[in-house]
Amino acid sequence: MKRYKTLEEAQIELIELLEEKGEFRGTLDELAEVLSVRPENVRPLLQLLKSSGDIIYEEVDDELIVRPAMMIPALPPLLTPSQQKEVEEKLKEGYKVVACSTMGGVQSRELRSMLGKRIIVYFRNGSKVEAKLKGFDRFCLKLKNYMGNILAYKHAISTIVYKP
């Protein structure tokens, strides 16, 4: 009996496939075979990744074309000198960079793994917030700290770090 992957495993595999090959062209059944998922689960998987901003896809007749979504930052990915020094210190303490403006399509996968964990968000204007990551979508992060809930727009963020 064939073992099918979970939706989360298939998401990660599809993102890695697109990072490696650039795009997928074929039928829904072929994509299901490549990802080892049931054919009826392919469309919901594609919709989920499309809504999170990870991919774009189109169906032309029987052919499916799946590509990674390209995010072009409106502002250069710069940290202020004091933020750069603080990030370097955090990395020496064992923290890990979760996402920054230069990471592109891998940020959703990294952010998914950080849900519910404490992160430090550095903004382009020089400020920072330490909070738990409660959720995210294509355009913003939902954070919670002692001040309450915070909605941070991704275009204003320079770098995100956390301690694993």
Automatic annotation (TrEMBL):
GO molecular function, a single term: RNA binding
Recorded hits in SUPFAM superfamilies, A to Z, give:
Sm-like ribonucleoproteins
Q: From the Swiss-Prot or TrEMBL record, give the protein name.
A: RNA chaperone Hfq
List, for all copies, the residue spans of the domain called Sm. 106-164
PROSITE patterns the UniProt entry points to: SM
User: Which Pfam families is this protein grouped with?
Assistant: Hfq (PF17209)
Against InterPro entries, the record matches this protein to:
Hfq, LSM_dom_sf, Sm
What species was this sequence derived from? Thermovibrio guaymasensis
What processes in GO biological process is this protein linked to?
A: regulation of DNA-templated transcription
Its taxonomic placement starts with: Bacteria, Pseudomonadati, Aquificota, Aquificia, Desulfurobacteriales
